[in-house]
Structures are given as C-alpha cells and as structure tokens.
Amino acid sequence: MQRNYVEETAVITEELIAEYKSYLYKEEKSRNTVSKYIRDIRAFSAFMDGGLVRKENILAWKEKLQATHSPASINSMLAAVNGFFDWLQLPELKVKPLKIQREIFSKPEKELTRTEYLRLVETAEREHRHRLALLLQTICSTGIRVSELKYITAEAVKTGRAAVDCKGKTRIVLLPSELVRVLGRYCSSQGIGKGMIFCTKNGKPLDRSNIWKEMKYLCERAKVEPDKVFPHNLRHLFAKVYYEMEKDLSKLADLLGHANVATTRIYTMESGVKHVRQLERMGLVFAGKQKPHNDDYVVNNRKRRN
C-alpha cells in the first residue's frame, strides 16, 4: 500500500509520516527513538518542500547536510530516512552513509572525571538537593540509562536488584550495597513504600530535560565545565571506571545492556592524556644538544687524522 502511494504521488506527506510513526511504536521503539526518527524524516521532507522523491534529491540533501552537521549526525539522519524508505518498500531510494574513521580518543573537554563527579555530588548535598545527589550516584554507580531510572523502585532497593526492560530486552541491574543503604534511607524519609523513587509529583518518570537542568544548576557551584555535565556522561564514567578495573569489554557490554561490543568500546575511549604520558616515558626525544649522526662522526674523525 505504501509503495503505490509513493509511486502515485512521489511526495512525503504528514499522513504518511504519521502512519510510519504508528508503525515504529508497534515495533516497540522507545519514545525518544521515535521522536528522533520522525524529526529527521520531517527535516528531509522540509528540504524536499513538496517536491518529488528522487534518489538525486536525497543525495543533494546528504551533500547539504555536510556543510552544517557532523558526519556522525549525518549518518544518524540518513539511517532514519533509509528506515522510512525500507518501510515504504523502496530500498532503491536508500543512500550510503558517510565513511567515518573510528576515533580512538575522546574529547578531553567533554570527559567528566571522577573528581568532577564527586564535586557535583558533594555540591548537590551541600545545596540540600538530596534527590539530585542520589540520582547522580544511582546512574553513575550502576551505569543505567536515564530512561531506565523508572526501574529503580522501592521494591528494587529491598532486593538489591532492578529488572530493567529496554527495547524489549530485560536485564538485571545489581545495586551496590552502599547505594541500597542511602536509597533505603531516602525512601523512609520520603514515605516511599513502593514504586518509582525518582518521579514527578504526578508519579511520572523524571524527564531527561528536567534532570539536565538540575545538573546544569550545579556546574558553577561545583566548578565543573557545563559541557561535561549531562546525564549520559555519568554512564560513560561508570564504563571507564569499570573497564580500568576489569579490562573486560564483554562483561561491561552486558552491564550496559549493549548488544554490540563495538558500542561499548566508544564508552571506554580515553582522552589520550595517559597515552601521551606513556609516549613520554619511552624517552625517544633527546633534550638539549643532539649527538652527531654516525656519518658526521666519521667525516669529522677523518678531518682530524688528515
């Protein structure tokens, strides 16, 4: 049905996008994923401006994006549009992603350190934002996603285990004993006997943007660069600390809920500071006056003998 629709009109309409959105939800895609896909498809639709859908138009959009977006963002947008064309049974309209060389170092200006994380927690406690301090520690000590906070319940605290369901897959997240202790004390003080611990007054899961705003509030007071402070960076810090201790990517992938170890590698990238220190310890750069080259040494000796 979708194929005939496009062949007859060759135009992406809001009705067609709405149908695809409904399909994504039936496929049990997360709300954030669906929103992202639909936003990217609408961006392409706006570029088309009601024009006919042709392969050359998609290639032109891809080229235009290269002037304003990073390669990773472009590939993400292309993946969304390609998925849309798959659903329409029009694979011939799909375009190839950009080739990106895998980065081996993370950006130091984006890397949240353990010391900075501790300052954020201490600042939250000092500012009497106890729930925020616990939220930071919960994400960072378990490695869960922000969207998985809703599975941290009073019942989970009692058992020390949270059953987390993400993208149709369930995994068990173990809660450290110290986290169980502080969360249990918080539940008692707030009268939380069952259900979610981190939720709004209406009992809904905390929104990602609200958590981000609260974290940004701490930046200046904790003397931490704002670019380093966002919820997902706490998950990255968990991954780096775990990997430094265990050096086990497969186990870390299980803990993070990754289906592919390649994704986990991204979480364990370092800024390169340690690598530079290791290069310096090799001592292959000679400070001060360099020793003469062997050929120069031979020539000079001959001159002295003559």
UniProtKB/TrEMBL annotation:
Entry-linked InterPro entries: CB (IPR044068), DNA_brk_join_enz (IPR011010), Integrase-like_cat_sf (IPR013762), Integrase_catalytic (IPR002104), Integrase_recombinase_N (IPR010998), Integrase_SAM-like_N (IPR004107), Tyrosine_recombinase_XerCD (IPR050090)
Domain of life: Bacteria
Pfam families named among the record's database cross-references: Phage_int_SAM_1, Phage_integrase
GO biological process, one term: DNA integration
GO molecular function per UniProt: DNA binding
PROSITE patterns per record: CB, TYR_RECOMBINASE
Domain Tyr recombinase intervals: 107-281
Core-binding (CB) domain ranges (all copies): 11-89
Gene3D superfamilies: 1.10.150.130, Intergrase catalytic core (1.10.443.10)
UniProt key word Transmembrane: no
Keywords: DNA integration, DNA recombination, DNA-binding
Role according to the record: Site-specific tyrosine recombinase, which acts by catalyzing the cutting and rejoining of the recombining DNA molecules.
Entry similarity comment: Belongs to the 'phage' integrase family.
Protein name in the entry: Integrase
Organism of this sequence: Eisenbergiella massiliensis
